[in-house]
Every structure is written in structure tokens, then in C-alpha cells.
Amino acid sequence: MSGVPGDALDPQVWPAGAEVGEDGAVRIAGVDLRSLAAEHGTPAYVLDEADFRRRARAWRTAFEEAFAAIGAGVDVYYAGKAFLSVAVARWAHEEGLRIDTATGGELAVALRAGVPGEDIGLHGNNKSDAEIDRALAAGVGRIVLDSLVEVDRVAEAAARAGVRAPVMVRVTTGVHAGGHEYISTAHEDQKFGLSVAGGQALEALRAVLARPELELLGIHSHIGSQILDPSGFEVAARRILELRSALARETGVLVSEVDLGGGYGVAYVPGEVALDPVETARAAARAVGDECARLGDAVPRISIEPGRAVVGPTTVTLYTVGTVKPVTVDGAPTGDARDARDARDDGASAEPFVRTYVSVDGGMSDNLRPALYGARYSARVVSRRGAATTVRSRVVGKHCESGDVVVHDVELPSDVRAGDLLAVPVTGAYGRSMASNYNHVPRPPVVAVRDGAARVVVRRETEDDLLALDLG
Ligand SMILES: Cc1ncc(COP(=O)(O)O)c(C=O)c1O
Ligand SMILES: N[C@@H](CCCC[NH3+])C(=O)O
Q1: Ligand 2 atom nearest 185 alpha carbon
Q2: Could you tell me if 439 and 399 are in contact, meaning their C-beta atoms sit under 8 angstroms apart?
Q3: Where N6-(pyridoxal phosphate)lysine occurs along the chain (predicted)?
């Protein structure tokens, strides 16, 4: 649904540099998407560099200012899993952020970007020896331990390397938050972290203190992703601070840092409202300040790891429309959960209606989120002004799956047709980073736009790239 009167672009979901021209076509950072498509082809991810930098700065300064008020320093790590490339790692670092990596591959990108090891963190619930060794060789600022066995594994790797490894312990606070079960990470029954309630978190912290090869920086908690209600962060912060206090009472060591993780939600469709960095930071600082005062502890240095909130809304995926097919839909739900939800969204009407299936030249290979999480997006024709009347549409990809849906339900101009350019906003996070080659579709490029110019920062894959892996 457009949700915005007339031609306007909803600023919650479009990159800051997006605007509609006289002819109805959309430009981002002064670059006409028609010329970008002509030069670079579709599908393509189009990333507004200034918007990325602005968002990175907004999260950093919001947290720095809010925590300065309670006397705490702040480090903001950009969570590279959302989208990492050499250019983006450089921009984030230039804007004063560090880089959070989750694998050796992400670490390699950050290092290639010239980010100093001390400004990089390494996560992972199943780090390989090679990843641990590489992180230590790079002198990373911290390795976040995710299990009891990792305490010994990282200590032994540090001994081999002849270094003292700076570590944090990732804990689960029992706070359940996030946009989908698959992306909620602090409840107990999942693979990440060590349970506070079950005692394993405290056990791991003691184990770290017993290993001279490890320097215990602090405690880490990440409660989930696409969180739109900030209260979970406050509850988690209080639980971590209680754990920190308990460790101090027992061992005399009051750890100096606490990481509150990422997960700050964005608006995906018009009408949704993203978490505001300033309000979120102030609420977190209040919770940390109050809890430390109650416990009688000094405030720790705070870190956060936003990914989606920095990169998600900076990017649109640009597609070319192919087949347009009206399908008469029997409004009655079939009984499965998704159909029941569709029926609700469809106004629970049992009346048959026509849905226009608009096929584009990408799909679940460039955006897995609708298929994986039932994620919602919007779409707009960006190459011209469409008819004033609209048709109820579903944007689908070109893959051999009926679940290959890009936008579940959207009003598009009734004259939408083959050759139109269609843009889907808010695809910067977990779009390219979770893209696949399903059906041997080469992954799209990432084209950065800035000051009227477009620059490819990740090139399009080619069939030759794919065939180069096939040894016959
Ligand atoms: C440990 C950790 N930090 C940071 C993030 C970034 O999350 P988001 O992109 O939702 O901010 C994630 C992913 O959810 C994560 O697992
Ligand atoms: N990939 C997920 C988020 C996972 C976050 C990583 N812990 C998404 O697209 O929403």
C-alpha cells in the first residue's frame, strides 16, 4: 500500500536522497534510476552513500551523547552481517564506527577495507580454529565468546600466538524480542550465548578470569533483530548489570564493558515507524544509569552493534518488470497459517478478487526475507508516472518456487507493464548479504549513489563466475 498521498515518497522507507521528478521518475542522490538501470542493468541494489553515513553518525552520536550524560563512554560497532563490502566498511569506519564481524569472511572484508584490527570484533557460535587464529593475528579488539568450550579454545589459541586475547562473554538474558522467531536471540532455547538464569554465564565469566591468556573486557547481550519496542533492551541491560555485579561480589572484578547488541528495528512498509536513535539511546542510558546506581557500581563503557538500522533503509532493489498476470483469487482461506494471514490482510473477505501478479527479474535469490520470515515490503514504479488508478498486486520473482514473493501485497498503477522499473525500498540489510545463486541466477551488483554519480561497489556476478566454480 502506498500510504502516502499523491506522488510523495514515505521518508520512513525511502533513502534520504530519494525524490520524485516532474515526470514521476525517481532519483536517488541525484541519480535517475532509469539511467542507472540502463548503465548497470537490473536487478541492482542502489545504495545511498550519504544516507548510510548519516545513519551511522546518528546512531553513534545518539548513544555517545546519551551515555555521556551518565559518564559512560560508547563504542558503536556496525554489524557487518547486515551488509558488508570494502566500501561500506570504510564508510562506517570513517564515520567513527567499529566493525562487528561474525565469520572469517566478514573479518577479511573489514581488514581489506583497512580497518585496524583493534576496531574489529569477532562473533560466532561456532568459530573455527582458523577464524580464532586469524582474529588474534589481526589483533582484533575483542572476541565474543559464545560457549564454555570456547573459553579454553580461545585461551589456547592465544597461548599459541603468544598474545593475551581480549574477550567478552555473550549471555542470554531470557528477554524475547524481535520481528520473528528466527531472529529473536536471547530466549533460552536457541544456539547463541550462555544462560544467565541457568548459571552458565557466570560459570563462563569465572572460567575466563581463571585463564591468564584472556583479558575479560565485559559482558555481551544481543536480544534479537527488527525490534520496534525498546523496552526489551532496558530489561536485558538490567539483567546484565546484575550479573556484572554478582561477578564483582564474588571475584572482586567489576568488568569494564557491556555490549547491548544490535537489533534496532526499521520501518519496512509505509505506516511503520522505526526506532528513533535518540529516544532509544536515552532510554538505554536511563536504564543503565539507574541500575548501576541501585547496585552501587560504576557505569561500564557501553557498546552497541546496529546493522539493519544503519544500512537497511539506505538501499532499494531496482527490478525490471516482465510478465504481468491478473489472477482471480478465491478469497476463502485454505487453512494454512499464511493463507489465514493473507485472508486477514485481504480484509477477511471471502469474495473472489483479482490479484495482479507482477514478475520481476530477481526474487528470493536477492531478497530471501519474505520467504524466510514472511517479511513485508512495498514497491513503486520508478521509471514513469503510472496511471492514477491502482490494482492490487503481488510482486514475484523468477524462481521455481511459488513462495518466491518479493512484495506480498501492494497497490501498483493499473497500467503497470513489462519494461517498467520497479523499486523495492529497505533492502539494504540482509538483502545482498543473504543472496543466493538459486536457479543459477548471478547475484546483483551494489551500486552506490552520491552527489549525482553512481559507482559499483560490488559488481554483478556473471555466468562465468558461476561456471568457474563448476569443474565439470
Ligand atoms: C550479535 C549480533 N550483533 C548485532 C546484530 C545486528 O542486528 P541488527 O541488524 O538487527 O541490528 C546481530 C543480528 O541480529 C547479532 O546477532
Ligand atoms: N537475517 C535476519 C536477521 C538476523 C540477524 C542476525 N543475528 C533478517 O533478515 O532479519
Answers
A1: 7
A2: yes
A3: 81
What is the DSSP code string of 17-54?
TEEE-TTS-EEETTEEHHHHHHHH-SSEEEEEHHHHHH
Of residues 184 and 405, the one with the higher pLDDT is 405
Among 83, 103, 182, 225, residue to substitute to test ligand 2 (most atoms within 8 Å of Cβ): 225
| pLDDT tens track for 216-237 | 999 999 999 999 998 999 999 9
User: Of 98, 143, 308, which is best to mutate to test ligand 1, by the most ligand atoms within 8 angstroms of its C-beta?
Assistant: 308
- Predicted local confidence at residue 160, as pLDDT: 97
Domains 18-48+313-468 and 50-310 share a fold: no
Question: Which candidate in 388, 400, 468, 471 is catalytic?
Answer: 400
Answer yes or no: is 5 a known binding residue.
no
* Mean local confidence (pLDDT), 25-48: 98
Per DSSP, helices labelled H in 8-141 are 33-40, 49-68, 86-94, 104-112, 129-138
The response to whether residue 55 sits with its C-beta less than 6 Å from ligand 2 reads no
Model confidence pLDDT, tens digit, residues 321-378:
999 999 999 876 554 445 445 555 555 556 899 999 999 999 999 999 999 999 999 9
* CB of 432 sitting under 6 A from ligand 2: no
The CATH superfamily assigned to 50-310 is Alanine racemase (3.20.20.10)
* 208 Cβ neighbours under 8 A, 6+ residues apart: 145, 151, 167, 169, 214, 216
The class (CATH top level) of 18-48+313-468 is: mainly beta
Q: What is the per-residue pLDDT for 120?
A: 98
Q: What is the DSSP letter of 398?
A: S
Q: Is the CB of 262 under 6 A from ligand 1?
A: yes
Q: Where are the domains of the chain?
A: 18-48+313-468, 50-310
Query: Ligand 1 atom 10: the closest Cα is on which residue?
Result: 263
User: Nearest bound ligand to CA 177?
Assistant: 1
> What pLDDT score was predicted for residue 340?
47
At 7 the pLDDT is 76
d(CA 287, CA 293): 10
| pLDDT of 190 above 60 | yes
**Closest ligand to residue 125's CA:** 1
